[in-house]
Specification:
It is built from five helices and six strands. It has about 170 residues and is α/β, with parallel strands linked by helices. The chain has a four-stranded parallel β-sheet, sandwiched between helices. The longest helix has 14 residues. The two termini are about 25 Å apart.
């Protein structure tokens, strides 16, 4: 994956250049799906197919256990030949925070894209995702960007902003 410079056009803010020169070409992007995995038309599956990014597979996508998922992420990070970028969605964002709070290998991660974090502390999600509470709210030891939405049924915009603030992620 080549990184040189990305130009971002933001409505009302003009153009700004973001340098990724510090990210080597040998970087591995790990795909971290959320609860129930990501189907074939999901953006993560498209990235996997288009770019060959590896998906961190979980033993049980329907009954996720935080500790089990953290072990899988740890093994994937350690297996990567060089620096790692995490591309997380939904429960994968919560996994990123939990893993980062416990791993001794976070220095291998050079950044994270956190998209539409799910909130396992929502009333309707507490039972199926009981091992994910409390959500880890410690600052991530690597740069990150969190992307949320106004109409996400699994996480309110206010809660997504709280996650971004706690994790030190750009919002």
């Amino acid at each position: 994956m080549r990184h040189s410079e990305v130009k971002e056009e933001a409505a009302g803010r003009g153009t700004r250049a973001v340098s990724y020169a510090h990210v080597p070409d040998c970087t591995t992007v790990l795909i971290l799906p959320g609860w129930q995995n990501s189907g074939p038309d999901h953006w993560q599956s498209r990235w996997e197919a288009l770019h060959g990014y590896p998906r961190v597979e979980q033993a049980d996508w329907m009954r996720p256990l935080r500790g089990d998922w953290m072990v899988q992420l740890e093994e994937a990070v350690l297996a990567a030949p060089g620096p790692v970028v995490l591309a997380a969605h939904s429960l994968g964002c919560i996994l990123t925070a939990a893993w980062a709070a416990h791993s001794r290998n976070t220095q291998r991660v050079v950044g994270a894209l956190l998209v539409a974090p799910g909130d396992p502390e929502r009333e309707e999600l507490r039972a199926p995702l009981k091992s994910w509470s409390p959500v880890v709210l410690q600052r991530l030891p690597f740069p990150s960007i969190l992307v949320g939405s106004q109409n996400d049924p699994y996480c309110s915009p206010t809660r997504a902003q709280q996650f971004a603030s706690a994790w030190g992620a750009e919002w």
